[in-house]
Automatic annotation (TrEMBL):
It comes from Corchorus olitorius. It holds the Pfam family Ole_e_6. This is Pollen allergen ole e 6. InterPro entries: Pollen_allergen_ole-e-6, Pollen_allergen_ole-e-6_sf. Residues 1-26 form the signal peptide. It comes from the Eukaryota. Keywords: Signal.
């Protein structure tokens, strides 16, 4: 009986470790954003969120709005950089 309990414990540890490894490696390479792009998004989000909440909008609405707006701004900036690099 004790052997079965130990075997079950070991199997649980193996399963937990197997699940944790892929998620940890995915977090390490989560996107190809550079520190500069993260700073741009972060500063855009902070300014937008502050302005939005001061205007009286609910926090959740401001988070959703600013996340979308700042993401779109980042994509537009990246596309304009690509267009400049392609045509040079």
């Amino acid at each position: 009986m004790a052997n079965k309990v130990v075997a079950l414990l070991v199997m649980c540890l193996v399963v937990v470790a197997a699940v944790q490894l892929p998620s940890a490696s995915a977090n390490e390479h989560d996107g190809d954003a550079t520190a500069h792009e993260d700073d741009n998004f972060s500063s855009c989000f902070k300014i937008c969120h502050k302005d939005c909440t001061h205007a009286g909008a609910p926090n959740t609405l401001c988070e959703m709005k600013c996340d979308g707006d700042c993401f779109n701004k980042g994509v537009k900036d990246q596309l304009s950089e690509l267009q400049v690099n392609v045509f040079e």
